[in-house]
């Protein structure tokens, strides 16, 4: 059900490229506001479209792995101090946001490991939340061993000695490289290796969906206009840009959720084609 709530002193918790995440006073959840477009009205329209998209297209594929998302109608005035830093045109008095579970609740510290990875934990390390963007979990080009993640990292001059596509084949290697030098319990590392190696892991499920969609979607280097972007391709690109949160408790419990499954605008086709051509032409492609 949609409710109207006031946000007297909302706090900005995170900002991404296309969204901000806000803590409302006294709320035990977070809200996510789209800031991709230059006016609140445009962002609201996109959010309404996105809600339907997630319900109809994404949730059927990811089911319980996907964080719960509900619309939340807020007063622009209550978010203005934050929103005006991200959206130039505050042209309407209502902001349509998405209400979601706070997946890092109760944690006290966050370490940024690299561009794709953060570790959130309580001081006693009894709760650890591993947040990462797995990106492309399987190749879709003619060379199945070419790793888009690692090659793209080279292209962007990111020196990261592992990627999440590797975690499908060799979870132990990724766990040891990602957490090398981090102060985390051995039991956590052991549980994580077992979890990632299981058929039910969030990465295995996401990889399977990406692989299926990649079989149907057109190749990025063949795109010539927005109209070449099929529904499967837009969905595939959304699923290649999600974040995963794996939450571990000292009693061994593990829960995992996916966030950020937003509808990608078809107008991004040129960016996708350009990145693909740069990866294809890279002088040091990475295979694994
Ligand atoms: O193209 P890529 O692989 O560089 O991905 C972009 C991301 O770059 P990164 O993964 O960090 O290297 C990029 O992330 P950053 O802003 O670099 O953190 C965005 O997620 C972008 O999507 P959107 O425009 O916000 O919807 C992402 O664009 P999409 O390709 O997912 O549309
Ligand atoms: N449910 C959640 N619980 C806790 N933190 C969250 C949650 N959702 C998002 N975040 C945090 O907010 C950040 C930005 O969120 P999100 O990924 O939705 O924005 P984005 O603009 O799409 O980011 P990007 O451009 O990196 O794809 C995330 O990296 C994460 O740290």
TrEMBL record:
It catalyses: 1D-myo-inositol 1,3,4,5,6-pentakisphosphate + ATP = 1D-myo-inositol hexakisphosphate + ADP + H(+). Its EC number is 2.7.1.158. GO terms for molecular function: ATP binding; inositol-1,3,4,5,6-pentakisphosphate 2-kinase activity. One of its GO terms (cellular component) is nucleus. Keywords: ATP-binding, Kinase, Nucleotide-binding, Transferase. GO terms for biological process: inositol phosphate biosynthetic process. The keyword ATP-binding applies. It is an enzyme of class 2 (transferase). InterPro entries: Ins_P5_2-kin. The EXKPK motif is conserved in inositol-pentakisphosphate 2-kinases of both family 1 and 2. Phosphorylates Ins(1,3,4,5,6)P5 at position 2 to form Ins(1,2,3,4,5,6)P6 (InsP6 or phytate). Belongs to the IPK1 type 1 family. This is Inositol-pentakisphosphate 2-kinase.
């Amino acid at each position: 059900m949609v409710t109207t709530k006031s946000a007297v002193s909302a706090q900005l918790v995170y900002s991404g490229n296309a969204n901000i995440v806000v803590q409302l006073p006294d709320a035990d959840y977070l809200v996510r506001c789209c800031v991709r477009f230059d006016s609140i009205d445009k962002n609201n329209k996109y959010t309404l479209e996105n809600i339907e998209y997630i319900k109809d297209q994404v949730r059927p594929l990811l089911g319980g792995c996907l964080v719960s998302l509900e619309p939340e109608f807020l007063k622009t005035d209550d978010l203005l101090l934050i929103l005006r830093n991200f959206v130039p045109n505050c042209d309407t008095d209502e902001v349509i946001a998405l209400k979601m579970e706070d997946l890092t609740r109760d944690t006290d510290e966050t370490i940024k490991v690299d561009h794709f990875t953060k570790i959130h934990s309580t001081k006693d390390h009894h709760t650890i939340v591993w947040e990462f963007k797995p990106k492309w979990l399987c190749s879709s080009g003619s060379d199945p061993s070419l790793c888009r993640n690692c090659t793209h990292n080279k292209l962007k001059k990111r020196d990261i000695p592992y990627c999440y596509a590797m975690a499908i084949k060799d979870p132990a290697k990724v766990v040891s490289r990602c957490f090398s030098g981090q102060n985390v319990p051995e039991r956590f590392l052991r549980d994580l290796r077992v979890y990632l190696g299981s058929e039910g892991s969030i990465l295995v499920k996401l990889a399977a969906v990406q692989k299926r969609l990649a079989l149907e979607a057109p190749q990025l280097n063949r795109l010539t206009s927005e109209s070449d972007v099929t529904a499967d391709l837009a969905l595939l690109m959304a699923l290649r840009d999600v974040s995963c949160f794996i939450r571990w408790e000292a009693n061994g419990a593990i829960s995992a959720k996916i966030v950020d499954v937003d509808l990608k605008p078809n107008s991004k086709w040129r960016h996708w084609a350009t990145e693909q051509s740069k990866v294809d032409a890279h002088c040091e492609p990475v295979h694994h």
